[in-house]
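re: ur question from earlier - yeah i can do the single chain one, its not a big deal. heres the input i used so u can compare w yours
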Amino acid sequence: MEEQQKQPNTTELDELKKQCEEYLNGWRRAKADLINYQKDEAKRFEEMMNYSREVVIGDLVPVLDSMELALRVETNNDGLQRIKIQLEDMLKKYGLEKIKVSPGDPFDASIHESVGEMEVKELESGKIAAEISSGYKLKNKVIRPARVKLSK
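and the output i got, formated as tokens:
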């Protein structure tokens, strides 16, 4: 006699469907968690890279200052001028930009640092009279404010 295959009844079938749905939902949640984790890790990695870049570039800014000072003292030094331009170009490639400052500009505490005052008859009080040292931004974040003197 042939054995008759047992057909699952509706309650068993409903129970299996419910169990299958639970497993599927668990898998979907796990997949979403993995995707979110990967996005978070990519963001953390990018932040770490930006911080590392900021530290290195921040350490190179005083070198630029020294070159500018050396070029003010010794104006006829083409080699040093070329090195300075190469360094500026390399830093610009990584997002460094010089904060532009001109006499008569309004003082902005978010990008300027006042280091004193000076008498300038042509300028109204509180305007920038002179730039003492350059300021720099790295990808729109001020890493060093421009040091300026204000008019009295």
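The longest strand covers residues 112-118. not sure if urs matches, ping me
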